[in-house]
Amino acid sequence: MTDSPANGHGTPTLAELDALSTEELRKRAFALARERLDVRFFWSVLRHLPNADEAAMLDGSPNSVGPTVDEAVALWREFTGHGYEESEPLLRAAFIDYLTRHSSE
Questions:
Q1: Contact (CB, 8 A) for 29 and 99
Q2: In this structure, how many other beta carbons lie within 10 angstroms of the beta carbon of residue 60?
Q3: Would you say 39 and 62 are in contact if contact means Cβ atoms under 8 Å apart?
Q4: Would you give the DSSP letter of residue 19?
Q5: Residue extents of the structural domains in the chain
Q6: What is the pTM of this model?
Q7: Crossing angle of helices 39-48/88-102, nearest 10°?
Q8: CB neighbours of residue 9 within 10 Å
Q9: Is pLDDT at 58 greater than 80 in this prediction?
Q10: How far, in Å, CA of 43 to CA of 47, rounded?
């Protein structure tokens, strides 16, 4: 993350994050979770996606979970018209929460 002019640190403010699109929040949160090897975060996101049952086939291996989750989300978005549907507010909140809690680590 780059320095945030609002707080002088690498942690973006809530307002800065809230101004981003859901897709940008997802990209940033996924990149951070990959850096941290945070499998728990990826699984929590997958559970909140529509048709989450179909994502249960992922093996959860730490070396492949980031790209696998990215691929699963991309595939799901392709088949569902590129939207997060009713899950968007919950996913936005999860991405923003993750970024505010872990960006400065």
A1: yes
A2: 12
A3: yes
A4: T
A5: 14-102
A6: 0.66
A7: 160
A8: 12
A9: no
A10: 6
Radius of gyration, alpha carbons of the chain: 14
Mean pLDDT over the full length of the chain: 74
Strand spans (E) along the chain = none
The pLDDT tens digits for 5-53 are 444 456 789 999 999 998 899 889 989 998 998 888 888 887 776 655 5
- Whose tokens are 């690498």? That residue is 10
Q: Record the tokens describing residue 18, joined without a space.
A: 């809230």
pLDDT at 1 over 50: no
| Token pair listed for 90 | 């919950």
Q: Which residues contact 72 (CB under 8 A, 6 or more apart)?
A: 46, 49, 55, 58
Read off the tokens for 50: 């529509």
**Helix crossing, 39-48 with 22-36: angle to 10°?**
150
